[in-house]
Design goal:
TIM Barrel; alpha/beta; globular; 12 helices
C-alpha cells in the first residue's frame, strides 16, 4: 500500500469504555479532554460508552471535536425488541459512530456474521457510521499472503454495502487473545492482518476504494506500544479499551496518532 494514500486517511483513535464508568466519571473525563483533542482533520477521536450516557455525552461534547460512539445497535428501526437500541434512536440523540461485531458481543451474546451484517446495513440506513470489529484468526491466511485470500468476517459484514456506503465504514482488527490480556499483537502481526483486510476490500470494491477505508488495531493498546502499531502502513488508528479509561492516556494516544513516526515522543507528556 502506498504511503501517499495512508497520508490521506485521517488517523482515528476510539475509546471503548464497555460497561465501565458512572455518570460522574463520564462528565469528569470529558471535562479533562474536550479542549485538548485536535481538530478532526488532524486526528479524529471517538468515545464508545453505554447507551444511557450517550445523549449527555453528545451535549457535553457539542463544542469539542470528539465523536460519540454507541457500543451496539439493533437491526430494526423500531418494534418489540425489549432491551435493544434502535439505530434510528441513536442517530436522533446525536451518536455518529457505532461499534458492531465486537468479540465480546460474539462470545457472550451470540452475535453472528449474519446479525453483524444486518446491524451494519441498519446503521448505514440511518446515517450512522459503523466501526466493524473483526476478530478472525489471520494466521490461517498467513501462508497464502501472496494469493490474497478474502477475510471471511469482512466479506460477510459488508454483504450488500454499496460503494458509496463503504466510504463511511471503519474496520477494526482485534485478535481475541489480545483483548484485555495485556499482550498486544506485534506491529508486524497487526500490519499483516490490516493488509489482508485491505486486500479483501480491494476485491470487494476496488483498490482505489480500499485505500480510502480506515483500518484500526485493537487489543491491549497502550501509549507504550501504540506508536509502533500506528506507524504501520495499513493501520490508521487504534480501538482502545483499558488504557482509554484514563484521560491522560487517552490524550497520549491521540498525540501519538498525530505523527507515530516521531521516535522520541515523551509518553508522559500530554
Amino acid at each position: 500500500m502506498s504511503k501517499i494514500h495512508k497520508e490521506r486517511r485521517i488517523p482515528f483513535v476510539v475509546a471503548n469504555w464497555k460497561i465501565n464508568k458512572l455518570q460522574s466519571d463520564v462528565m469528569d473525563f470529558l471535562e479533562k479532554v474536550n479542549e485538548k483533542v485536535p481538530g478532526e482533520k488532524v486526528v479524529e477521536t471517538g468515545i464508545a460508552a453505554q447507551d444511557l450516557f450517550l445523549a449527555d455525552m453528545v451535549r457535553a461534547t457539542a463544542d469539542s471535536p470528539i465523536h460519540i460512539v454507541a457500543e451496539n445497535v439493533h437491526w430494526e428501526d423500531n418494534g418489540a425488541y425489549t432491551g435493544e437500541t434502535s439505530p434510528k434512536a441513536l442517530k436522533d440523540v446525536g451518536a455518529k459512530y457505532v461499534l458492531i461485531g465486537h468479540f465480546e458481543r460474539r462470545k457472550f451474546f451470540n452475535e453472528t456474521d449474519s446479525t453483524v451484517n444486518l446491524k451494519v446495513t441498519a446503521a448505514l440506513r440511518n446515517g450512522l457510521r459503523p466501526i466493524i470489529d473483526v476478530d478472525e484468526d489471520m494466521s490461517t491466511y498467513a501462508q497464502f499472503m501472496d494469493a490474497q485470500p478474502s477475510v471471511a468476517q469482512v466479506s460477510a459484514a459488508l454483504a450488500g454495502v454499496s460503494v458509496d456506503q463503504i466510504r463511511k465504514v471503519t474496520i477494526a482488527y482485534e485478535p481475541t487473545w489480545a483483548i484485555g490480556s495485556g499482550e498486544a499483537a506485534s506491529a508486524d502481526q497487526a500490519q499483516k492482518a490490516a493488509y489482508l483486510i485491505r486486500q479483501t476490500l480491494a476485491k470487494l470494491y476496488s483498490p482505489v476504494i480500499a485505500e480510502q477505508v480506515r483500518i484500526l488495531y485493537g487489543g491491549s493498546v497502550t501509549p507504550n506500544n501504540a506508536r509502533e502499531i500506528m506507524s504501520q502502513e495499513d493501520i490508521d488508528g487504534v480501538l482502545v479499551g483499558t488504557a482509554a479509561l484514563d484521560p491522560d492516556k487517552f490524550l497520549q494516544l491521540v498525540e501519538i496518532a498525530k505523527d507515530p513516526s516521531v521516535p522520541n515522543f515523551d509518553i508522559d507528556h500530554v
